[in-house]
Amino acid sequence: MSSVIDKRRSGRPIIDLNTRQLLINNARELFSVMTYDKVSTRMIAQKSGINVAMIRYYFNSKEGLFETMVRETLAPIQVLIQQLLVEKNTNSLCELMRTYYRVMTVNPSFPRLIFQLMYLPNTNSQRQSMEKIFTEITQPLQHRIFEQLAQQNIIRSDLDPHLCKISFISLMVFPFIAPPSILNIQGVETNEAFFVNLLEHNLKVITGGLLLPLKESL
Asked: Cβ–Cβ contacts within 10 Å for residue 20, how many?
């Protein structure tokens, strides 16, 4: 592993993006399987094989590392939401779901982490931080995107745009937050192949159920 400190220079250490990313990756893994209070900066540093001082250098604190981890995990999804706000078309809507599945398939415990925090008391600092981040990232979806898709004849006229949004979010999020025991009862094994097949199935449900065929939406 490369050193984050260039011993040939004096002063503050130079930024090592590999080290920074390693801390984020291991923090995400630990926060996803343990409660926030049980995860310490020393634990994250030890798992990363890095001096704990580097967490203070890059992120200032455990809270800063946690917020950075959440924001950077959700960054690809935020980009697609912003794109959907601008383009408002079938391809952007489907690409948003594809991106969500791609990100969460390699981080399957992350969605549960989000929802566990959102169930904490509203005075909890981690819940407040998560609400702030989640609101910033998903806010465009609250700006009547589905209503605008309906006005552009992209969504079927006999469907409620608000309920279409709820259906879309449910298809996208539920498979990753459902208790494994419930899925096991249904004979579902949540592996990469399952999520790949479910994604393609859900896209067919969306394009065949919520959206008008392209020739009708023109």
From this structure: 20
Model confidence pLDDT, tens digit, residues 84-104: 777 766 777 888 899 999 999
Say which residue the tokens 């995990």 belong to.
73
- Determine the CATH number of domain 15-60: 1.10.10.60
Residue 1 confidence (pLDDT): 44
Walking along the chain (218 residues) 10 residues at a time, the average pLDDT comes out as 42 64 94 90 95 94 94 89 74 86 90 88 88 82 74 85 89 90 88 92 88 54
Which pTM does this prediction carry? 0.78
Name the residue ranges covered by the structural domains of the chain.
Answer: 15-60, 66-210
Best CATH choice for the domain 66-210 from the list 1.20.1050.40, 2.40.10.120, 3.40.50.150, 1.10.357.10: 1.10.357.10
CB 85 within 8 A of CB 144: no
CA dihedral angle for residue 141, residue 147, residue 152, residue 155, rounded to 10 degrees: 90
Is there a contact between 62 and 26 (Cβ–Cβ < 8 Å)?
no
